[in-house]
Each structure stands twice: as structure tokens, then as C-alpha cells.
């Protein structure tokens, strides 16, 4: 029997999810890491317009901050300045995808922050504990709410230390750590390794397993961020996936280029349909206790996050 319903509704039905949510977009605005032509060791620096009252306003904030980024400086400092210039201090916050496995040395168990330097003498190799302390200093100095892949994918111990120390105020996201695999998600929940899942359907291989990973994450009180992959096309499936599974967050690049804008435009279309999601939502308080069907974010910054619920 053919059901004439939107894709996001079909996904929600598969997951038994009664709450539809437009996600907060995490715009990747500065690239570092192995594939960027600069010396930044950390892979992605993102902005999240958590103070927006609607998805439309979130897009506006993202575009305006993005266009204030014109130089290649230290990522966090530049983002902070761009947010201030755009007039969105307190409304736009920062996320990072470190991809630390890229600069982890299995040989001596260190992280080389100068791994992209031509004449690297190894003087900037640091231990996992020292890298952990570096993240803590970032969080105290900049409006950071999300750190993805802060350590090597097999460095479970240091992950757990960081989550234990700052997990109440910052989202620690597992991508390489979890690979959207329910088995690894279960282990991370048990060991309190992180507190958020990066959802990539083609990483685990099926929608069924992806739904299970999301369910497990939400039951544990984790955040969930749907994500694109490298080599994306203009296919908009992950936009519907994010709404249908009420992930609350989506990462699909900067607000430019057709393969990225197609996904944001799909979400904007959804935001204009009264049967889907309203344009605004009342302010949430830090005391608000979310139901199991609602997206989860660290308690300390719930009051900053708008989820644009149905």
C-alpha cells in the first residue's frame, strides 16, 4: 500500500517517533586537518546558531557570520571575532570536529599538533591528558558547546576523562569512536566515554541500525547530530532523516555550494509547512525536563538551544 506522506514522516513512523524536530544547523566555516591547505591541525570549526527562534533565522545567522570569515587565523579566535562582528554574541556558539586520529601516533601514544609542518621536529607532541587540558582551556575562553572526535578512536580512557570533567557543559561527540555502530554506542554508554552520537547512515550501512543507534543514544540522554559525508551530492535524505528522527542537530557544511544548500533548502521547505514545524518556539529554561522523544543536549546549555519542535 502506497502511503502519500513526506519522507521525514515515513522515517519517524519507522522509528516510532511522534515528535518531529527541525535541527539546529552546525555550519562548518573553517577547515583544517589533513586535507586543508593551512597549518591548522584540527579538522573543522563550526558555528551553531542556538539562539535563533526559527530555522529561517538560524540560516540567516549562519550566513551572516560565515561572510565575516575572510582570513586564515587561528580558528577559534577568528570565529569568536566573526560572531561579534555579525552581532550574534550569545546567540551563535562554536563547535569543533578535531579528528584527532589524524594526528595521533600509535608508536608513542602522543598527539602531534604540528603534524602539518614541513620541518616538524616533534616539539609539539603532547599526551592525551595534555590535549584534554587544552580543550578545557578552549572551553573556558570561547563559547564552545560541542567537540567531536577529540581523541584517537581507540583512546577510550581519555575520552571518558574529558566527558567526566566537562561533559555537563559541553557535548562530546563520537564519530570515529562510534561509527554509528550500536555495539560501540552501547560500550560508550556503559563506560561514559562521550555524550553524543554523530549519525552517518552509510557508515553503519542501514537505516535500521541507524535508528537503533539513535534510540540507544537518546535513552542514555545523549545528543545526536546527523551528518553528511565527504563527496556529497545534492541528495537531501539526511535532512529528512534528521527531522524524522528528531536528532536536533545537523552538520552538512557551510552555507554555500549546491550539495550543501540543497539540504538546508529542504529543511527550510519543511519549516514553511504548517503540518510539519512552526517558525518559532518558546524559550527553554535550564530546568526544563525533556521527554524521551525530544532531542538531548548537555544540561548546562539546554537554555541556549532552540529545537523548533512540532
From TrEMBL:
Cofactor(s) in the UniProt record: Mg(2+)
Molecular-function annotations in GO: magnesium ion binding; phosphopyruvate hydratase activity
InterPro entries assigned: Enolase, Enolase-like_C_sf, Enolase_C, Enolase_CS
Entry GO terms, CC: phosphopyruvate hydratase complex
Keyword Iron: no
GO biological process per UniProt: glycolytic process
Region (Disordered): 272-310
Pfam families: Enolase_C
Family to which this protein belongs: Belongs to the enolase family.
Record's protein name: phosphopyruvate hydratase
Lineage of the organism: Eukaryota, Viridiplantae, Streptophyta, Embryophyta, Tracheophyta
Amino acid at each position: 500500500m502506497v502511503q502519500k506522506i513526506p519522507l521525514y514522516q515515513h522515517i519517524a513512523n519507522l522509528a516510532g517517533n511522534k515528535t518531529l524536530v527541525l535541527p539546529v544547523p552546525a555550519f562548518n566555516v573553517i577547515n583544517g586537518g589533513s586535507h586543508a591547505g593551512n597549518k591548522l591541525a584540527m579538522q573543522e570549526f563550526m558555528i551553531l546558531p542556538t539562539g535563533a527562534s526559527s530555522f529561517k533565522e538560524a540560516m540567516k545567522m549562519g550566513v551572516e557570520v560565515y561572510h565575516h570569515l575572510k582570513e586564515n587565523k587561528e580558528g577559534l579566535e577568528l570565529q569568536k571575532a566573526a560572531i561579534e562582528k555579525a552581532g550574534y554574541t550569545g546567540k551563535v556558539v562554536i563547535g569543533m570536529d578535531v579528528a584527532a586520529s589524524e594526528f595521533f601516533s600509535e608508536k608513542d601514544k602522543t598527539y602531534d599538533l604540528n603534524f602539518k609542518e614541513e620541518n616538524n621536529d616533534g616539539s609539539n607532541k603532547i599526551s592525551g591528558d595534555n590535549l584534554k587540558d587544552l580543550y578545557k582551556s578552549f572551553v573556558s575562553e570561547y563559547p564552545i558547546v560541542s567537540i567531536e572526535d577529540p581523541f584517537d578512536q581507540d583512546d577510550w580512557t581519555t575520552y571518558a576523562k574529558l566527558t567526566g570533567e566537562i561533559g555537563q557543559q559541553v557535548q562530546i561527540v563520537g564519530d570515529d569512536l562510534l561509527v554509528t555502530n550500536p555495539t560501540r554506542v552501547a560500550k560508550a554508554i556503559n563506560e561514559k566515554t562521550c555524550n553524543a552520537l554523530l549519525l552517518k547512515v552509510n557508515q553503519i550501512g542501514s537505516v535500521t541500525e541507524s535508528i537503533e543507534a539513535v534510540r540507544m543514544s537518546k535513552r542514555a540522554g545523549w545528543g545526536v547530530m546527523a551528518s553528511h559525508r565527504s563527496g556529497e551530492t545534492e541528495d537531501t535524505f539526511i535532512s529528512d532523516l534528521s527531522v524524522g528522527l528528531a536528532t536536533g542537530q545537523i552538520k552538512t557544511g557551510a552555507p554555500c555550494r549546491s550539495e550543501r544548500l540543497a539540504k538546508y533548502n529542504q529543511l527550510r521547505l519543511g519549516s514553511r509547512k504548517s503540518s510539519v514545524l512552526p517558525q518559532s518556539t518558546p524559550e527553554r529554561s535550564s530546568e526544563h525536563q525533556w521527554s524521551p522523544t525530544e532531542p538531548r543536549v548537555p544540561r548546562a546549555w539546554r537554555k541556549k538551544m532552540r529545537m523548533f519542535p512540532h
